[in-house]
Design a protein that fits this description.
The structure is a single chain. The chain has 252 residues and is α/β, with parallel strands linked by helices. The chain has nine helices and seven strands; from the N terminus they run αβαβααββαααβαββα. The protein has helices spanning 19-25, 55-68, 79-86, 90-95, 120-132, 141-153, 158-175, 201-210, 232-251; strands at residues 39-42, 72-75, 99-103, 114-117, 189-192, 216-218, 221-225. Pyridoxal-5'-phosphate binds next to loops.
Length: 252
């Protein structure tokens, strides 16, 4: 509302619209009413399950954007997860976007903070917009120091989160057959479709909380993440406590 933006959502498998779908969405409206000014992609894609977009797919979408003269914004909140999982350096992803944001928090481990990247004119305008939105913060330096640590050390340990997430998914899939496909877990996000075995996700959430396991519910599924404060041992403990929580929820 504040930005005066309307969204055209593209529904795509794994949260990744193919280039043809983007090109179709960018076809000019004959009445010039529905003008698209920006294409925004997310990599990895949170709601789609932490899915990774391959650099070739991104290049193809970029080409479609360039042909339509529309800039491409990359919501790379978890771009370092995408990089670790795909082996593509972040700079290669960044080179395909007109602007990119990434979080210093989340997987990289800072308590707070994000970075917005673009050319000088863009970042100048973005800083102005940030202040207009009430985002001025004078004493952010001490937190920026934590961000530097996150940037330095964070990427080196993301593989551990991905390994832990896959293990968590395998353990849950074994305990609750049919609730998820562990091979679809590409990074650090695990969605469990407890409803598919007759367990309301919020019931599962509450029972898990009673068992000392914290998760969230998104899109009707239990959502679990691995990060620097979740160890391989925690994952095993969660797998151990899972059946009690979920079968209790089923009965309750
Ligand atoms: C967390 C997140 C953001 C916003 O990050 P902030 O640090 O709150 O600005 C944007 N996009 C995605 C996909 C996110 O997960």
């Amino acid at each position: 509302m504040l930005s005066g933006i309307a969204f055209v959502e593209l529904e795509a498998t794994r949260g990744q619209p193919p280039a043809e779908m983007v090109a179709e969405a960018l076809r000019p409206d004959p009445y010039d009413v529905a003008a698209v000014d920006l294409v925004s992609l997310e990599n990895t894609h949170n709601v789609a399950g932490g899915t990774v977009m391959a650099i070739d797919e991104l290049r193809a979408v970029r080409k479609a954007c360039q042909e339509a003269g529309v800039p491409l914004y990359l919501d790379g909140a978890r771009i370092f997860n995408a990089s670790v999982a795909s082996g593509t350096p972040v700079r290669e992803y960044a080179a395909e976007a007109d602007a990119l944001m990434f979080c210093l928090s989340k997987g990289l481990g800072a308590p707070i903070g994000s970075v917005l990247c673009g050319d000088a004119e863009f970042t100048r305008e973005a800083r102005r917009a940030k202040i207009l939105f009430g985002g001025a913060w004078r004493q952010a330096g001490v937190l920026a120091a934590a961000g530097l640590v996150a940037l330095e050390d964070g990427p080196n340990r993301l593989q551990e989160d991905h390994t832990n997430a896959r293990r968590l998914a395998e353990g849950i899939a074994e305990a609750s057959l049919g609730t998820l496909d562990p091979s679809a877990v590409e990074t650090n996000i695990v969605y469990v479709d407890t409803a598919s075995v007759g367990v309301d996700p919020w019931d599962a959430h509450d029972r898990l909380k009673d068992e000392g396991v914290l998760c969230s519910v998104l899109g009707g599924k239990v959502r679990m993440l691995t990060h620097r404060d979740v160890t391989a041992g925690d994952v095993e403990e969660t797998i151990r406590r899972w059946p009690a929580a979920v079968s209790a929820a089923a009965v309750g």
